[in-house]
Amino acid sequence: MTKLYIVGAGPGAPDLLTLRAVKYIALADYILYDYLVDKSTLQYARPDAELVPLKRPHTKQSEINSQMIEAARSGKTVVRLKGGDPHIFGRLNEETQALRDAGIEYEVVPGVTSATAAAQAANISLTDRRSASAVALITGHLSHEHDPTLPALDFAKFATFPGTLVFYMGVVTVELWSKELINNGKSKNTNVKIIQNATQANERVIQTTLSQASEIVEQENLQSPCIVIVE
């Protein structure tokens, strides 16, 4: 039976790929990769492998699903290469459901998620037994804004969360979530670190406060990929 591999490419640096990820990339006939995946990761692909970039957010999820299924049914060894860890804001459930519906066997390979890579870049720990006994991983792409049937983020709970808040894809909506956290009681002086291109040569780490986060994003022209850590 044809098998498809959904592989986590990690945060960017190719030496943070898992050994299993490298093995499957090297085996693949066809690699369907997200546009944020660092191109150096593809050095492990065979010279004759077909490399297909996805231009999200312009590529619809249904189109991605169809491309995966079509390639797998053609008998090719297919790798669906996703940035970070596919289990964290990677639309994994949507893709695996489509594969199950199509009768395609698959395997998911975890990757180093961007939150831990960003924490390393910022020289901090996401947990601390004295002050941060929990970590919340939060999407900055607010699906509720586009589809009211989806659950909205509860900023009142995040404002009193007993630990570290990590926003993925949070720079576009920074004005909204920073104001919501402050309006719900979180101190405007709360430390915020914004990490752009974690683990890569052009990595940037910017420190600010919750009240200044939106202004800093605009001043520094920060764009994805960024991770925002609210301590």
Question: What do you see in this structure?
Answer:
The chain has two domains: 3-109, Tetrapyrrole methylase, N-terminal domain (Cobalt-precorrin-4 Transmethylase, domain 1), CATH 3.40.1010; 114-230, 2-Layer Sandwich (Methyltransferase, Cobalt-precorrin-4 Transmethylase, Domain 2). It is built from eight helices and ten strands. It has helices at 19-27, 61-73, 92-101, 114-121, 143-146, 155-159, 174-183, 213-219, and strands at residues 3-8, 30-34, 50-54, 78-82, 105-109, 135-139, 164-168, 191-196, 204-209, 226-230. Strands 3-2-4-1-5 form a five-stranded parallel sheet, with helices on both faces. A five-stranded mixed sheet has the order 6-7-10-8-9, covered by helices on one side. Strand 8 (191-196) and strand 9 form a beta hairpin. The longest helix is centred in the first third of the chain and has 13 residues, at 61-73. The chain is elongated and about 55 Å long. The chain starts with a strand and ends with a strand.
